[in-house]
Amino acid sequence: MRLELTITPRFCETDALGHINNTILLQWFELAREPLFKIFTPDLDPKKWRLIIARSEIDFLAQIHYGEDVKVETYISNIGNSSISVEHIVFQKGNKVAKGKAAMIHFNYQIQKSVRIEGIEREELSKYLEK
Fold first, then answer.
1. Which of 51, 61, 88, 115 is deepest in the core (most CB within 10 A)?
2. Number of alpha carbons in the 13 Å side-chain half-sphere of residue 108
3. Do 104 and 114 form a contact (C-beta atoms < 8 A)?
């Protein structure tokens, strides 16, 4: 199963060339991961946060323009002991315009170490797993 998020690009997200600035996609990807964040921190309280991002990458496949909605599809490609690989595909007008990947770590801030993903969290994440 994939998560789907429709985003209406804002004018302020455009750059001098008239298309969506490349830095904006990282923000869109983070927004698209919010349902996954809620698996670990249901109320999204930063004081209870249990994830960190270890890596993020983007492939730009075509220009993304202001004035047309985009759809971000999100899924998990791997669940490790304490990490997950999250993938994103961005579409505009039915065309794939970008894709990205993030490595997220289940992290205990008190002891400053990664911790195993177990139980209900692993079960919930598995719903979004695609190989």
1. 88
2. 8
3. no
The pTM of the full predicted model, rounded to 2 decimals, is: 0.93
Closest to 72 (Cα-Cα) out of 8, 9, 4: 4
The ranges assigned to domains in the chain are: 3-126
Residue 3 and residue 76 in contact, taking contact as beta carbons nearer than 8 Å: no
Residue 69 contacts residue 92 (beta carbons within 8 Å) = yes
Q: What backbone torsions phi and psi does residue 41 show, to the nearest 5 degrees?
A: -135, 85
Q: Which of the residues in the chain have pLDDT under 70?
A: none
Q: List the one residue out of 51, 74, 55, 58 whose CA is nearest residue 128.
A: 74
| Fold held by 3-126 | Thiol Ester Dehydrase; Chain A (3.10.129)
Cα 77 to Cα 71: distance, rounded to the nearest angstrom: 19
Structure token digits, residue 67: 């004035």
Contacts of 118 (CB under 8 A, 6+ apart): none
